[in-house]
């Protein structure tokens, strides 16, 4: 039982930090998050001056018992998923910090800032090249972070 308390201590500490100082344009949905501290719901408001300006999304963050040694599962779950070369239409996010560049020193704020940066720097709304096959294969399943091995390259963003 003690082995599982470590992740919860870290998660609760991050929850407090995120609530007190969320990344710009993000807010924790405390009503949904309060149900289970290992699953967060984050409302995302796209940055002004970007191609996503005025759009809003919801991220779901699921922590495992292996956190922080393994990344949390972070996906877009709202009806509106941002059309982006690094986001699949099923909500899975292709970002290296959730894949081969994950480190236990990272936290959810760092992941969220990376996602905001990815969205803000995009110049063209477009799905990843293999969106249809990937989204069909992993529909309603957890992201396959082994797939996001850093070899994915796209010149659109």
From TrEMBL:
CDD domains per record: UBCc_UBE2W
A Gene Ontology BP annotation from the UniProt entry: protein modification by small protein conjugation
Name under which the protein is recorded: UBC core domain-containing protein
Record organism: Steinernema hermaphroditum
InterPro entries referenced in this protein's UniProt entry, alphabetically: Ub_conjugating_enzyme, UBC, UBQ-conjugating_enzyme/RWD
PANTHER family: UBIQUITIN-CONJUGATING ENZYME E2
Coiled coil region boundaries: none
Origin organism lineage: Eukaryota, Metazoa, Ecdysozoa, Nematoda, Chromadorea
Record domain UBC core: where: 6-157
């Amino acid at each position: 039982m003690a082995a599982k308390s470590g992740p919860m201590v870290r998660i609760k500490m991050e929850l407090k930090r995120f609530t007190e100082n969320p990344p710009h344009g993000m807010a924790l949905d405390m009503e949904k998050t309060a149900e289970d501290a290992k699953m967060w719901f984050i409302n995302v408001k796209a940055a002004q001056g970007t191609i996503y300006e005025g759009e809003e999304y919801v991220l779901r963050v699921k922590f495992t018992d292996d956190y922080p040694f393994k990344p949390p599962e972070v996906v877009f779950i709202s009806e509106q998923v941002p059309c982006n070369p690094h986001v699949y239409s099923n909500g899975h996010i292709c970002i290296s910090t959730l894949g081969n560049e994950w480190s236990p020193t990272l936290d959810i704020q760092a992941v969220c800032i990376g996602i905001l940066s990815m969205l803000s720097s995009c110049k063209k709304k477009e799905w990843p090249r293999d969106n249809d096959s990937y989204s069909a294969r992993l529909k309603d399943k957890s992201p396959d972070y082994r797939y996001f091995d850093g070899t994915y390259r796209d010149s659109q963003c």
